[in-house]
Write a structure and sequence with these properties.
Double Stranded RNA Binding Domain; alpha+beta; zinc-finger; 5-stranded mixed beta sheet; DNA-binding transcription activator activity, RNA polymerase II-specific; single chain; extended
């Protein structure tokens, strides 16, 4: 069966011609899109390994490749690019070394030439001075003439030194200008057309990106990406929930790969550890790092460029804003707060800050009082967005999955199923520990609900007949039944009724499970330990007092 999605056609099932497995496959010589880039796998084989694959003109079943092999091919191509880049750097360094040697030889020749010119001037001036001298009658040299000659020699020598300093200074300025030109070429930012304001904006973005690349390559800062409160490696998109593991994993990548990544508007960088990569200097501040790598290691950074990226100090427990020291429990809340400091897209109505204009546009729609709805053509149900309508049609009417996996070609029917798929199939670690107790959960939502319910004790639902409060409205509804005496939850096996659903569920266990809690004083047995304790208190209380 062949399906087409926004990334390209998928053949399910198909036999991969690279590993021979029966999986969901892609066609090896058709263009696909991955992370905003176009890729044709047959061309990647040719570029990376020099392999000209056969049978590319046959049917689709003869030219298939699975997602696992595609991932390995991408890694091989990335490694090839890394090797070529390092080779290019080595060759450029050799060329610069040869150029420096040639420049030094030319400088020595120039110095020798200058010295010879100066010596000729000195000899010529001395000769002229001697020609003017008139000896006295006693054939004794004129003392004043010798003094004048020595003064002129000193002036010529000073002029010689000044000439040398000027030549060296000009040579240094020339080398500096060449380095700046090389850095601008390495930035590889295409020139954009437009008015002066657009050009200045593009120049600032280019300089900010150049500074960011230099900082990432020469320090231990950790660039990363996020989706709500989950962290992603910016190089390979591996997902983490623990920032310590994210930092350990990022250290396995070559930081020079960052310059080849697609440009992002708001790069996020963890600055828990900064330190210089080029030496053993320990550095705790980005400004100190900039001064260090420019003055000590002679790196080129553009001055007066602020906010090249968003700075965070990622910790497993509490997250602190680097600007105002306000603390947050989840990264999503911290990033939303950071927009108040650095967000340039501001709502004219309420003053809310955003990093991206599209997010501001979505926010501004909330201020517009509109009754625009998107009806389903099949059943007439109304939705507030086209995306919700699309999910409804896919799940209800077409019976098609609509949640694609980011790691493979699997598409699932719900967010929950995709979440479980990521844990079970791809082994993504999902472990969130409570700070207040030893409970752990597999999602941030469950941890948040636990904190609100058991530690913060946020009980918004209060009974009108008494002072009791509840976390969930369903619990309040069950509680109200205790005031009215209603017992609406009846057992279908024995007819016993209960005022709360929870009580009925506990009772139902007595019909379906083994009664492993047995009373030592009689033959009664129970499915739960709490029921055994209640039994002992009611039936054997006098016996307990007797034993005491």
């Amino acid at each position: 069966m062949s399906t087409i999605n926004r990334k390209g056609p998928i053949i399910d099932p198909g036999v991969c011609r690279c590993c021979g497995c029966l999986k969901k496959c892609r066609i090896i010589n058709i263009e696909y899109e991955w992370q905003g880039q176009k890729e044709i796998y047959s061309d990647m084989f040719m570029d990376c390994f020099g392999l000209l694959l056969s049978h590319l003109e046959g049917g689709p079943e003869e030219r298939l490749i699975c997602a696992t092999c595609v991932s390995r091919l991408r890694e091989a191509c990335a490694f090839r690019k890394q090797v070529l880049r390092c080779e290019e750097l080595l060759l450029s360094a050799k060329i610069h070394l040869d150029n420096d040697v040639e420049e030094s030889k030319e400088g020595i020749k120039a110095d020798i030439k200058i010295e010879s010119i100066v010596e000729n001037e000195v000899v010529e001036e001395d000769h002229n001075n001697e020609a003017v001298l008139i000896p006295d009658s006693n054939n004794e040299p004129d003392v004043n003439s010798k003094k004048k000659s020595s003064v002129k020699k000193d002036k010529v020598l000073k002029r010689k030194r000044k000439t040398k300093v000027t030549v060296n200074k000009e040579k240094h300025e020339l080398v500096t200008r060449m380095q700046k030109v090389k850095k601008l070429k390495d930035a590889d930012v295409p020139e954009q057309k437009g008015n002066a304001k657009t050009k200045n904006t593009n120049d600032n973005e280019m300089m900010a990106r150049h500074n960011t690349i230099c900082i990432v390559e020469n320090s231990y800062v950790c660039p990363f990406d996020t989706s709500f409160s989950d962290y992603f490696c910016i190089y390979c998109r591996k997902q983490f929930t623990d920032p310590n593991k994210l930092r350990e994993h990022t250290m396995t990548h070559d930081p020079q790969i960052y310059k080849d990544l697609p440009q992002k508007k708001t790069l996020q960088i963890d600055i828990l550890r900064i330190d210089c990569r080029l030496c053993t200097q320990r550095i705790d501040n980005i400004d100190d790092l900039k001064r260090h790598i420019t003055s000590i290691h002679h790196k080129v950074l553009y001055p007066n460029i602020d906010n090249e990226f968003l700075k965070f100090r990622l910790t497993p427990v509490r997250l602190i804003c680097t600007e105002c020291d306000e603390s947050f429990t989840f990264f999503h809340a911290l990033k939303k707060h950071m927009a108040e400091h650095f967000g340039t897209c501001i709502c004219d109505i309420c003053g809310a800050h955003y990093f991206q204009e599209r997010m501001l546009i979505l926010h501004q729609k909330t201020h517009q009082k509109t009754d625009e709805n998107y009806p389903c053509k099949e059943c007439g149900k109304l939705f507030k967005s086209k995306h919700n309508r699309y999910l409804h049609i896919a799940r209800t009417h077409k019976k098609e999955p609509a949640y694609p996996c980011t790691k493979c070609d699997e598409v699932l029917f719900s967010y929950t199923l995709r979440y479980r798929h990521m844990i079970e199939v791809h082994g993504i670690e999902r472990l969130f520990e409570c700070e207040q107790c030893d409970r752990t959960y597999d999602s941030r939502k469950s941890l948040r609900e636990h904190n609100r319910r058991f530690h913060l004790k946020i009980f918004k639902h209060q009974c009108d007949l008494c002072d009791k409060r509840f976390y969930l409205p369903s619990r309040l509804k069950e509680h109200i039944a205790s005031h009215s005496g209603e017992r609406n939850f009846r057992c279908e096996y024995c007819g016993k009724s209960y005022p709360r659903l929870r009580g009925l569920k506990v009772h139902m266990q007595s019909h379906s499970t083994e009664k492993k809690y047995k009373c030592t004083l009689c033959s009664a047995s129970f499915t739960q330990n709490v029921n055994l304790k209640n039994h002992i208190k009611r039936q054997h209380q006098t016996m307990e007092e007797y034993h005491e």
